[in-house]
Design brief:
It is found in: Membrane. The chain has about 120 residues and is mainly alpha-helical. About 70% of the residues lie in helices and about 0% in strands. About 5% of the residues are buried.
Amino acid sequence: MEESIYLGSPPPRARAGRRARRAPGMSILHGKDDIFLDLKQKFWNTYKSGLMYWPFVQLTNFSLVPVHWRTAYTGLCGFLWATFLCFSQQSGDGTVKSMFIFFLRKEAGDRPPEK
């Protein structure tokens, strides 16, 4: 019975190997040599930014926002966080400071250096 499961597919070890190679996702799709480079460079900065952002969001959520608006407020804050993460992935270093510098350059008409 067990062999009939594997008749049309590769053995489990081969499937696990393929899955492990796909794990880093976007770095592979971008064709980067070191697929863990973004993780090494940006993880701790992004993590610390999140530790400053989310407690502030929850503090304001439970102290200032009416009960019937809390879900919408948290959803909006989650959307803003996801936008920050996308920016950080593309051109930032995982800090809020890099985002402000980007917007100040944009207002002044300067372009950040392309990678």
